[in-house]
Amino acid sequence: MSESVTTGVTKTVVRQERQDHVLVLTLDRPEARNAVNGDVATQLEAGIDAADADDDIWAVVLTHEGPVFCAGADLRAIGEGRAAELRTERGGFAGYVQRERKKPVIVAVDGPALAGGCEIVLASDLVVASTDARFGVPEVKRCLVAAAGGLFRLPRKIPVNVAMECVLTGDPIDAERAERFGLVNVLTAPGAVLEAALTLANRITANAPVAVQQSRRVLATETFGSEAAAWQASGEAMGVAMSSPDMQEGVQAFLEKRAPQWTGK
Fold first, then answer.
1. Among 25, 20, 36, 203, which residue's Cα sits nearest to residue 105?
2. Domain spanning 2-190+214-256: CATH 3.20.20.70
3. Where are the domains of the chain?
4. Which among 63, 97, 212, 261 is least surrounded, fewest beta carbons within 10 Å?
5. pLDDT for the residue numbered 116
6. Beta bridge partners of 3
7. How many CB atoms lie within 10 A of CB 34?
8. Where are the beta strands (DSSP E) in 117-227?
9. pLDDT of 185-208, one tens digit each?
C-alpha cells in the first residue's frame, strides 16, 4: 500500500510503500530528473525517520521513477540563492547523506546517478544497478565541489586513482566498471533493479533485525573512523568554490545550455 509523506507540502516527491519488512522509498520528481529540492530533502528524511521508528521495518530500498536516478542538486535553486533548502539539519544534503540511521538502505539505480545523486548512492549501504546506470561527480564542471560526501566516500568505494579521475574530470563511470571496482553489489538488466533490490533486502530481513542493525552500525562507523574532519574539509572546499565568480557562470551556463567561460578566479 502506497502512502504519502505528510510534511506540509503540496506534492509528494518521495513515495513510501511497505512490502513486508521492507520500506520502499521512491524518488518521484522525474520531470526534473529527480533533482533534489527542498521537498525531496524533507520527504526523504521523513522516509528514513519512518523506517527507523517502525520496529517492523528491517530494511529500506531507495529507488526512482523515470530514466534518471537523481541528477543531484536543483541547480536552479542554487542559482537563485536557495541552496540551504536542499539540506536538513539532521540529514545534510537531501536530508540523507549525513543522516545517522539504524536500518540498512539498498539503492536501486536504473539510470544516471550524478553529483548529489551519486553522493546519495555513496551514503547508502548496498547498491543494485542496471547496465543503464552511471555514477559520477561532475561538480567541477560548474565550479562546485562534491561536498555531500563524494570527495571522501568515493575513494573508499573504488580505487583512489579512479576516484581521482572521476573527481577531477567530472566524467562518470558506467555500471559495469562500477561493479568491477566494487561499488555495485548486484548488476542487472534495465528494468530489473527493484526486483533484485527486494530480493537482496529479503536476504537481509531473513536474519535477526537487532543483529543486522548492530553489525551495520559497527561496520559503518568503525571501518574508516570519524567523518567529522572529512565533512569539515568538504564544507571548506565548497565555500571557496561557491565564493568564486566562476560558480555563478557555471550554473548560468548549465541553465542556458552553453559551455561555461571560466576566469579561474
1. 25
2. no
3. 2-190+214-256
4. 261
5. 96
6. 16
7. 29
8. 126-130, 134-136, 173-174, 186-188
9. 999 999 999 999 999 999 999 998
Give mean pLDDT, residues 180-185.
97
Q: In the beta sheet, which residues pair with residue 109?
A: 129
Active site residue 119: yes
SS3 181: helix
Cell of 171: 566524467
User: Measuring CA to CA, how many Å separate 10 from each of 26, 32, 35, 39, 106?
Assistant: 17, 17, 17, 9, 28
Cell of 195: 526486483
Q: Is 249 a catalytic residue?
A: no
Options 3, 45, 100, 119, the catalytic residue: 119
Per-residue pLDDT tens for 124-179? 999 999 999 999 999 999 888 999 999 999 999 999 999 999 999 999 999 999 99
| pLDDT at site 5 | 38
Mean pLDDT within 90-97 = 96
pLDDT at 106: 98
pTM of the model: 0.85
- Catalytic-role residue among 31, 65, 89, 139: 139
C-alpha span between 116 and 92 (Å, rounded): 11
- State how far Cα 48 lies from the chain centre: 13
Q: CB neighbours (10 Å) of residue 116?
A: 31
